[in-house]
Design brief:
The protein has a single domain, classed as 2-Layer Sandwich (GMP Synthetase, Chain A, domain 3). The chain is built from four helices and three strands. It has helices spanning 3-17, 20-23, 54-68, 92-97, and strands at residues 26-34, 39-46, 74-79. Strands 1-2-3 form a three-stranded mixed beta sheet. The chain is globular. GO terms for molecular function: iron ion binding; iron-sulfur cluster binding. Residues 19-75 form the NIF system FeS cluster assembly NifU C-terminal domain. This is Thioredoxin-like protein.
C-alpha cells in the first residue's frame, strides 16, 4: 500500500471513528506515514491541547489504529504544539482512581 493510501485510510478512520475530536473543538493532523514500516504519526490539537483527558484519547487512537487498519504497525500520537497551545494537566491518573471511571473507555 502506498503512503498516500495509508494516510487516506488513517484520515478516514479518524474522521469516522473518532468524531468526538472535531465535535469538541479539536482537530487531528497526520504528520507522517511510512509505508514501508507501517508507522503513522498523528497530532491532536485545538481543544485537545487543553483537554485533561486527551491522554486517554491518544491511548485509544494508538491502540485502535494499529488494531483496525491493515498496514499500520505502530502509531505515535502527540499533542500539537505551538505558541498558543494551552495544555491542561493530565487528568488520566486522577480519573483512573475515581469509581465512576473504573470501566471508562472513550466512546470511539
Amino acid at each position: 500500500m502506498s503512503a498516500q493510501g495509508l494516510e487516506r485510510q488513517t484520515r478516514h478512520y479518524l474522521s469516522n471513528n473518532v468524531p468526538q475530536i472535531q465535535e469538541h473543538g479539536g482537530h487531528f493532523e497526520i504528520e507522517d506515514v511510512n509505508e514501508e514500516t507501517g508507522e503513522v504519526t498523528v497530532a491532536i490539537g485545538g481543544a485537545c491541547s487543553g483537554c485533561g483527558i486527551a491522554p486517554m484519547t491518544m491511548k485509544a487512537i494508538r491502540r485502535r489504529l494499529a488494531d483496525e487498519l491493515d498496514g499500520v504497525s505502530e502509531v505515535t500520537v502527540r499533542r500539537a504544539g505551538g505558541p498558543r497551545a494551552a495544555v491542561m494537566p493530565d487528568k488520566t491518573s486522577e480519573m483512573e482512581e475515581m469509581e465512576e471511571y473504573t470501566d471508562y473507555s472513550p466512546p470511539f
